[in-house]
What we know:
Largest sheet: none
Number of domains: 2
CATH architecture of the largest domain: Orthogonal Bundle
Structural class: mainly alpha
Shape: elongated
Helix content: over 70%
CATH class of the largest domain: Mainly Alpha
Oligomer: single chain
Amino acid sequence: MAEDRRTRRTKRLLKAALVQLVLANGFDDVTVEDITEHADISRATFYKYYRDKQALLDQVVADVLAELQERLVPLAPASSRGFTGKPVLELFRHAREERDTYRVILRGEGHGSALRTFVDSRTATAAKIFADRAAHHRVTMRIDAELLARAWVGEQVAILQWWLEEDEPSMSAEEITHMLLDLSLRGRLWANGFDGPAEGLLDAPSP
């Protein structure tokens, strides 16, 4: 048990060092030596657990996704029946708690690998929920589940990128979730201020 605690502490220190250094200098300019010096851990110990700094970044992303998924699991049954907004709110709350780690991921550090892994994971989860919801209500989806999920996740990622980089967030997680829920339930025309049908808008110039 003591060894396990030491291992967990070592890995936690290395991950924290990576996040702090990447935020300050960028992934490309951070070396394994930088990480071990910052964490006050030997290079031999680093290589005991990780092949290189990319492997450490991959683990950071995997841990964030695992923590998020653990928080979302209890919400899945209700989400598969209808829009509750709770999974989105939990995502934004988690991002607020792990702000620095999310910023590293969402900035595309590690040549975009962290962001791709994050987006692909969230997309797979969203696509399953959309498909399960359609099956529950016995309706046929009008848009491919994968495309719909990527559009949905893409919106959240873009908002997270903006929100987490603000020194003083202009909106709370609850306010953002409420707006995204309205957008999902009422659509973009409603969000743009239109209450009636889309007649006359389909041939309008793109924004």
